[in-house]
Structures are given as structure tokens and as C-alpha cells.
């Protein structure tokens, strides 16, 4: 089986550049807690198997209460997947914003998504295998694709206006999810495994391609 590891801030459009103001102390503490929880969730899942990990176990390993855990994640699967997808959503938008303002919007979006969804990153190479072997984790991984919608809306709005940006971003998130579904197909045998099918970059480009006319049209419109 071929595997790829995946790399999941507030920013503003500024003539092709992105600015990331330093978060306050409270936000930094929240970010640290979220990171501790997702790291603990993945570590325990790799050590014990995801079905043997409880929310209480993750909270204890991260040094917080189960109630605090529930303020950050709605399930153990969400926390485990977040360890793989963390910060990817913001990085997609940042990569779009980093392109020169003269870059075609469709090209900027497509290449940013391909880059970030195929970035080897620094995650444990066993993480994606763990996710693909569990139907619940696969579903959570696919659901995580929706996370790019809000960051993309923020950066695309700098070119097209807010309403159009929201429509386009929702469509792009749906396209990414479809590409991932095609890539991670359940195996023919009912054994809980999946087969990696085709080139992920090619699947992502093919899924986004039907949106190119809309992205081109929006790129030519004045801001609303």
C-alpha cells in the first residue's frame, strides 16, 4: 500500500502576502492544550489501538480533565485525526495568499491544496496507516477536509468579495473530500482495510478542475 503523510492563525489578504498576528496568552494556552490532546490521542492510538483508547485516557495523558477535552474535540477519532491534519487548513490558505496577486486564482488554489495535502510533514509514518485501517478514523479524516472552508473564504474574499468566496470555498472543500474518498477506497474484501487508488495530486486536480470556470469568473469580478 502506498502511503502519504499529511501535514491540519488568523490571516489577511495583503497583495499576495499573508500576515499572522501573534496570538495573545489565552489563545496560546488554548493552542498548547489542543496540541497536547491531539498528540496524546495519536500516541495512545498507536500504542494501544484506536478502539482501546478512551476520552478519559487522552485527557489524563494530556494533563487535563475530560470536561476540558470536550471543549476541544467531540470524539476520540476527531482528536486522533487532528494530530495528522493540524494546521493544514491555515497552511492551504496561507499558500494561496503567498502567491503573487497576478496569479490566476484557480491555479493558486489548486497548487496550494496539492502542496499541503501531499506534504510529507513530520508526522509518525504509522499515523496514516492507522487512519486508513479504521472506518471511524477514515470518516473523521474525510470530515476534516471541511476545515479548509473558513480559512479559504478569508483569503479568497480579498479577491472576490465575501459572498462569492464562501460559495467557492464550500465547493472547493467538497471537491477535496471527493478526491480523498476516491484515493482511500475500501478494499474489495470486507476486512476494514483500504486501497490507495491513483495519484493523490492528480485526483485533487481533477476534482477541483470543474470549479475552474467559476474561479476564473470570480477572479475577474470587482470586490463586493
Walk me through what this model shows.
The protein is 62% helix and 4% strand. The N terminus is likely disordered. The strands form 2 sheets. A two-stranded antiparallel ribbon has the order 1-2. The chain has a single domain, classed as Orthogonal Bundle (Tetracycline Repressor, domain 2). Helix 4 crosses helix 8. By secondary structure, it is mostly helical.
SSE arrangement:
Elements lengths: L12 E2 L2 E2 L6 H24 L6 H8 L3 H5 L5 H10 L2 H11 L6 H13 L8 H7 L2 H9 L5 H12 L1 H22 E3 L7 E3 L3 H9 L3 H9 L4
Helix pairs in contact: 1-2, 1-4, 4-8, 5-6, 5-9, 6-11, 9-10, 10-11
Strand residues, percent: under 5%
How many domains, in number, for the residues? 1
Q: Helical percent range?
A: 55-70%
Poorly predicted regions are 1-20
Assembly status: single chain
Radius of gyration: 18 Å
Q: Please report the distance between the alpha carbons of the first and last residues.
A: 47 Å
Structure in a nutshell:
The protein is mostly helical. It has one domain: Tetracycline Repressor, domain 2 (Orthogonal Bundle). The protein is built from 12 helices and 4 strands.
Amino acid at each position: 500500500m502506498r502511503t502519504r503523510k499529511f501535514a491540519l492563525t488568523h490571516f489577511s489578504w495583503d497583495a499576495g502576502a499573508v500576515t499572522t498576528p501573534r496570538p495573545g496568552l489565552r489563545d496560546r494556552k488554548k493552542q498548547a492544550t489542543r496540541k497536547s490532546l491531539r498528540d496524546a490521542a495519536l500516541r495512545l492510538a498507536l500504542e494501544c489501538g484506536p478502539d482501546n483508547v478512551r476520552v478519559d485516557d487522552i485527557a489524563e495523558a494530556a494533563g487535563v480533565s475530560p470536561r476540558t477535552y470536550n471543549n476541544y474535540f467531540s470524539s476520540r477519532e476527531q482528536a486522533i485525526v487532528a494530530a495528522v491534519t493540524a494546521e493544514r487548513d491555515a497552511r492551504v490558505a496561507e499558500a494561496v495568499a503567498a502567491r503573487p496577486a497576478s496569479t490566476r486564482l484557480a491555479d493558486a488554489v489548486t497548487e496550494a491544496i496539492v502542496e499541503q495535502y501531499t506534504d510529507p510533514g513530520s508526522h509518525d509514518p504509522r499515523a496514516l496507516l492507522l487512519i486508513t485501517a479504521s472506518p471511524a478514523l477514515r470518516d473523521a479524516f474525510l470530515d476534516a477536509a471541511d476545515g479548509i472552508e473558513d480559512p479559504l473564504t478569508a483569503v479568497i474574499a480579498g479577491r472576490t468579495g465575501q459572498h462569492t468566496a464562501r460559495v467557492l470555498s464550500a465547493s472547493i472543500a467538497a471537491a477535496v473530500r471527493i478526491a480523498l474518498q476516491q484515493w482511500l477506497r475500501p478494499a474489495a474484501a470486507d476486512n476494514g482495510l483500504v486501497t490507495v487508488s491513483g495519484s493523490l495530486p492528480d485526483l485533487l486536480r481533477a476534482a477541483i478542475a470543474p470549479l475552474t470556470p467559476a474561479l476564473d469568473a470570480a477572479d475577474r469580478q470587482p470586490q463586493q
